[in-house]
Write a structure and sequence with these properties.
This protein is of the alpha/beta class. Helix content is 54%, strand content 6%.
Length: 359
């Protein structure tokens, strides 16, 4: 497979291996790239995948920072410290939002990366985030929360964009001037097609509640793991960072970290969740398993899907071609379906992609 020999694919695999929270038996720190050009590609891959703070942390833990060129070491340290400062601001936004909702007798359940910033060890989190997800199970409380947030200064990007979210598992993202992140208020934890894997009712019964200066909940670990898995396999559609087949490395590491917290292997977890190997989830499970085996060197319970791995290698090496393919396919689908309500949204995405293609 010629694509597997490319420098970009090799460095992508190196990056995944270094930051993986699940280490292989007899594993040892990866040998550092010696070429300056390699480091340029690594910084690019780490940036678009949101893992530069993780890379710095792992190299520091491996006592390898001193082996890097001084300017590179300082740059990585800068990314890490900036992310720490940004996470501090995100945590402040979470706390102020929770306090605001508590004042109206609404206790939010914080999801995904937001829950990391409410843990006792939140300062050690290397997760990068641009949005904060919260779930309010009761529909009346959801509507009340939207009004409360609007009075507080939160707005959706546009009315047109908001209509795209009428049947979505969360409302249109909300922005507030002066706040670092957008809020995504969830109607449901996951999209309707995934309800059978992560039903709201069962998840709510297992919520871990915290009462004190502020009152909030987080999902139990089993539900956190499943949501993180579904983020990787069913709900990742970022046009500029995830062309066609690829997944943001940051989301995969989040899944592996939560899996590691439970103390079981990926194969054991899949055995605990046999529905994932049945239709309609089987193909995505096999593809994701193949990705973990190829790039994170993790044992998997299924045979590698080599055709999928070739697509991944192509997408990593030729991202611009993949972007053009993505735009053409989804643009054609939009026209054929007659669903023009998303046209403004797609115009924005296409313009962003065209700017990237010209670089």
């Amino acid at each position: 497979m010629a694509f597997y020999a490319s420098d970009k694919v090799r460095l992508y695999k190196w990056l995944c291996h270094v930051i993986s929270p699940i280490k292989i038996k007899n594993d040892h720190p990866e040998k550092l790239p010696a070429c300056e050009g390699d480091w340029g590609k690594i910084i690019h891959l780490g940036s678009v995948n949101g893992v530069l703070p993780m890379l710095y942390s792992q190299l520091k833990n491996n006592n390898q920072l001193a082996l890097l060129p001084p300017d590179l070491s300082l740059a990585l340290e800068g990314f890490y410290e900036l992310n720490c400062l940004f996470n501090k601001r995100l945590r402040e936004q979470i706390i102020s939002t929770t306090r605001l909702l508590n004042h109206h007798n609404i206790n939010p359940i914080w999801l995904k990366g937001s829950s990391n910033l409410l843990a006792p060890d939140w300062t050690s989190s290397t997760r990068t985030m641009l949005d904060l997800d919260l779930w309010i199970p009761d529909a009346n409380d959801q509507r009340s929360a939207l009004k409360i947030l609007e009075i507080d200064g939160y707005r959706s990007q546009s009315d047109t964009l908001a209509t795209d979210y009428l049947s979505h598992h969360h409302y249109a993202p909300l922005f507030k001037v002066g706040e670092p992140a957008r809020l995504e208020l969830h109607r449901h934890i996951v999209s309707p097609r995934c309800f059978s894997l992560l039903p709201d009712g069962n998840s709510f019964k297992n919520v871990k509640w915290v009462a004190g200066d502020i009152n909030f909940g987080t999902l139990a670990l089993n539900e956190q793991i499943m949501q993180s898995y579904l983020q990787c396999t069913e709900q990742s559609t970022d046009l500029l960072c995830r062309p066609r087949s690829t997944i943001k490395i940051m989301k995969i590491v989040d899944f592996l970290q939560r899996l590691s917290s439970k103390g079981i292997s990926f194969s054991e977890w899949m055995t605990e969740n046999p529905a994932l190997m049945q239709e309609p989830w089987r193909v995505k499970a096999q593809d994701f398993s193949s990705f973990l085996h190829e790039f994170f060197f993790i044992d998997i319970p299924v045979k590698n899907n080599k055709k999928y791995l070739r697509k991944i290698a192509f997408a990593i090496q030729f991202q611009k071609i993949e972007l053009a393919y993505y735009i053409a396919k989804h643009g054609l689908r939009l026209i054929l379906s007659g669903d023009l309500k998303s046209i403004d949204r797609w115009r924005i995405k296409i313009n962003q992609a065209l700017l990237l293609l010209r670089k």
